[in-house]
């Protein structure tokens, strides 16, 4: 890019000075004309603006609102004082590369039922970025576990790909949810099927939904040959009938009636070297690689040890300490306003530069 005198002008910030989430959300609230004028100054972004710029030039505002309006409605809900404070670029105090061998760390994020839609979206932003960071390294990372409880309350982008590829990067994924209909409601039928068909280990307690029971009873446990014995007694003789037929290994009714502490499921198989006898013969019934990996059992927890461990938990330290609620609101509001002023100043500077060209 060149100025009015013909001298080449280099960007002051190649990695972006205002590329964090708060500044982007604030920038999206500007007029369409302002947004396009600013983005067109970036040669890499300009080609992507073609369809939007054409609609704006032809004054097809309804079409433009259909393409961008919905995005602005949803993103505007994320623009809060708290989110601006946490996601501000000046607050880069934590590296999401939690599996870094030089600096391994833990990250715990939680949701709030009263603000589930907003906090859930922000948590998903953190989690999806974390996944991108840890699911790399060609196996040189510290082994890490990504544990998500109440999965339907959080949107996990391309979760099936993570489950399928993370093992090579020493990443394990544990997902918890109540019932399949709950998962389908938030991820859709296709998304739900991708998740339940990609996971290698399944552990379930008592279930109630028909879809969940059918999946566990039919797909996970399946049917096996079962021997049924029938006894008939009459005046002259007693008859015993033995019949073999295919029947459910664990019926749906048995899963729905499981008491507290009982679990069922299936674990992923590991590679086992095939052991053969004389002349390469193999006994399938006794071979290790053909033994079932399904289970139906009762858990055995030492509650005394668990309570002892819980009593030794140390409270999490507070990273940010405010003297009072009033000071907290004042600091957060000041930061909220500052982000908007940063965006206004950036736009003004770019517009002045465009007039000089």
UniProtKB/TrEMBL annotation:
Keywords attached to this entry: Cell membrane, Membrane, Transmembrane, Transmembrane helix
- A GO CC term assigned to this protein in UniProt: plasma membrane
- Whether ATP-binding counts among this entry's keywords is no
Q: Which SUPFAM superfamilies match?
A: P-loop containing nucleoside triphosphate hydrolases
Q: Which domain of life is it from?
A: Bacteria
Location of the protein in the cell: Cell membrane
| A Pfam family recorded for this sequence | TraG-D_C
Name it: TraD/TraG TraM recognition site domain-containing protein
- Give TM regions: none
Query: TraD/TraG TraM recognition site domain location, by residue?
Result: 143-259
* Mode of membrane association: Multi-pass membrane protein
